[in-house]
Queue: 3 jobs
Job 1
Amino acid sequence: MGDEELVRVDGVDLCVETLGDRADPAVLLIAGAACSMDWWADGFCRRLADAGRFVIRYDHRDTGRSTTDEPGHPSYTEEALTNDPLGLLDALRVRRAHVVGLSSGGGIAQELAVRCPERIASLTVMSTTFYAPGGPELPPMVPGLRAVFDAPPAPPDWSDRSAVIDYLVADWLPYSGPAGATEAELRELAGRVVDRSVTVASSGNHWLLTGGSTPPEHSLGTLTVPALVIHGTADPMFPFPHGEALAAAIPGATLLPLAGVGHEMPPPATWDAVVPAIVEVTSAA
């Protein structure tokens, strides 16, 4: 779709794709844990680029075409995943960017906005929450998803493409809301992920990471950049009050509810609302 390349960051290769005019404001998309850039749909990225944004999406370590470690043996810490976006911006010679983070990518975006305000022009977080103790008491994940966490399916034969796709779809489907991604859409996404990944099984290394830095939640009240919180009303991982509380904690933040959407990338039916909201918040900086 755009220009895809491997960029050297902190001793590893990160696969990055850019779309749009480099003279336009840069928007850096940060996916969730164990997620490659494929989660940022092509059509979504095109809409942002067509609206006058220089769109950057990338594969985290151990996802997609970026450097991968042996499954079960990550050689890096949570801190590395947080620092990678800054190293990526440096490599692309982008001084300041608008960040858009999904799920744990939203946690990374929060930390960058607090820790490096000179590099972050605006903050958009989707399907995320407070990433430290000390925030308000919020509802836990719904029982159905908790059951999946407590009894995850057995891993597939990673050399069997069809079995891996079935496994990924079964893993992802419980996160979708009634207005979210369908099984057919997730199956198409899983195929792209499998076909682009160096080692699909390595993405599970994200769940083994330790060594993150001090989370920034107690400092969110000091943020001065424009902020947008996008949250599905049917999110089973972080129920909707998580989004409401996060928006309330960031001065001047706008909350955009997505009716019937779960813990997932905003589906195409929501893009007519989501893309203009991102364009607006990235225009206010």
Note: The chain has eight helices and eight strands.
Job 2
Amino acid sequence: MPKELININHIKRYFPVKNNFGQVKTIVKAIDDVSLSIYQGETLGLVGESGSGKTTLGRSVLQLETIDEGAIYYKETDLTSLKKKDKSKWLKEMQIIFQDPYSSLNPRLTAIELVLEPLLLQFDATEARKKAEAILEKVGFTEEMFTKYPKEFSGGQRQRIGIARAVVTEPEFILCDEPISALDVSIQAQVINLLIDLQKELGLTYLFISHDLSMVRYISDRIAVMYLGKIVELGPTEEIFSHPQHDYTKKLLQAVPIPDPKKAREAMANASNQLTKEIDLDQQTEWVEVSPNHFVLKER
């Protein structure tokens, strides 16, 4: 078995929704008792519709969101119990690639300056410069591009800078938060292949959040399906796609476009026959292993 890098243990994150008088009207359960393990060197894909809690879960792992209950362990250290000054040691090993590369980059800094910024906290200027140049070349930049500003690059090139910033400090874990959704379709595959190459070369572990199921299938070793704050299905990628068990997973896969019209009609007919009842998560409280390493949330 691969070694566990991150253990998410029964975490909850609730947001109160208030009316115009400041009274709590309802509670949004962004994360509702989620437990999950992420193993060293793997890519865990996290999928679900908007509002399912994917990004809140990812940000909680990096301590960018405060959880209400539970614990998050990184290499057996409970990050949620540490004081802020003690967290910095561990958080250096964790980075994030943002959805929108333009808003995440300082427009006043050049490409080389953006990558140098985190390095100058750890190395002298000469060594930091060498490392920054090396990683920019690794993500496909030439020397004449080093001194250009973010506005002079395409979306795909800006995301490459974001990736370079994330990996240059040699982290072990990277949260990829919708890293390709703002990019042209023609560029998405290039960025995904770059992430795969960097993972193999640097031994990285990814939590890959995306709406694009085809890209999630391409990059992920395992997939976790999230719905209304809960993980409803978890398993090896091909097992999830070929033998989905939870009704919500089936709905997600039904929404994937199929190029062949005949096959598309057959898939829709099969899906409609399978999805005859509404999904009631309140009744689904048992985590069942339906096949090796393939788990689904079911009614007791």
Note: The two ends are 29 Å apart (CA to CA).
Job 3
Amino acid sequence: MGRRMQPQTVREQVTRALRDELVAGNFEGGHVLREVELAQRLGVSRGPVRDAFLQLSHEGFLAYVANRGVTVRHPPVKKNRDMIVSLRVQIETFAVKSGLADITEEGYAGIEMALRELRFACSNDSAAAVARCDMAFHEAVLLACGAEDFMEVWRQLCAKMLMAYSRLHDYGEVLEEHQHILDALRSHDKQAVIAALKENIR
């Protein structure tokens, strides 16, 4: 079972629901999202939908286009995605090189909890949940390594990758790769951690 989460506000619930739909590919790039339609479908007022649009625009999933409103961003083309992957790898490997020795037992507990949640998501065969838990695992690693200064840019890079999440049908492999990362972290082997990260981030 996943950990018991704090109750979410309506704004957070709507934002998560829309993010999951975007990650699952339920909206094509360029699709116009309308507040009224989404509010009716989700059973909420327009305010939380508007707030969700702002948050998801900040994360890089949505864009405001003149005379069209809020549209879904297109996934990055391959050469741009390759660069995004490279930048994300640089951030995560730098964090490990800098902070591996400083990970506390509390930090490891957070990473292990994230891995359990990823395993639970995989067992339920939910693409959006797997993608979300995949990123949450890496975020737990970064935070455990003391990489708070990089979190905002890292999250934006992840949003771009999630728009074309490529690990939708090999959940067993995904779990194995994340277990390798945790095992390498626990062994304090920087090179093994970096190799495991590079194998996983693609």
Note: DSSP finds nine helices and three strands in the chain.
